Structures are given as structure tokens and as C-alpha cells.
Amino acid sequence: MKFLVCFMLLVAFCGQVFASDEAKREKIKENINDSKRAVKQESREFEDRTCELVNGKMVCALKKVKHSAEKRADQIKDAAD
By C-alpha distance, which of 41, 42, 63, 43 is closest to 52? Predict the structure, then answer.
């Protein structure tokens, strides 16, 4: 998972360095943000699916509520961009 994030950031950074037009830079920046949000969301969903194997149901229920709130916040940020 960390390798994927590092690879995506490296590719996006290289693309941003060679981008000459401001519109291209904005699009690259938006793609980076979308990639970060997707990785975070997948990580949260994985943790939600595997939580009860490690922790109790009450701890997992609280984490699921927290992850749901974070997902909504990310959607609002994405809509603002």
C-alpha cells in the first residue's frame, strides 16, 4: 500500500515538473488529491472489514462511524475542488 502511494506521488511529481501549462498543473494536482483520497478510502474500508477480527464490536463500531465521517469530509473537499 505504501509503495503504491509513493509510486503515484513520484509519477505525479515528475509529471508536474515537466508540465508547462498552468491548466496541466492544476489537473495533475487534482489527480494527486483524488489518488490520495482513494488510497485513504480503501485503507479505511479494509480496516473496517478486518476490525472485528482483532478488536471488539464496540471499538469497531466507533471506528466505522469515524471513517464514515472522514469519507463525507473527503467528499465535501472533493466537491469544493
Answer: 63
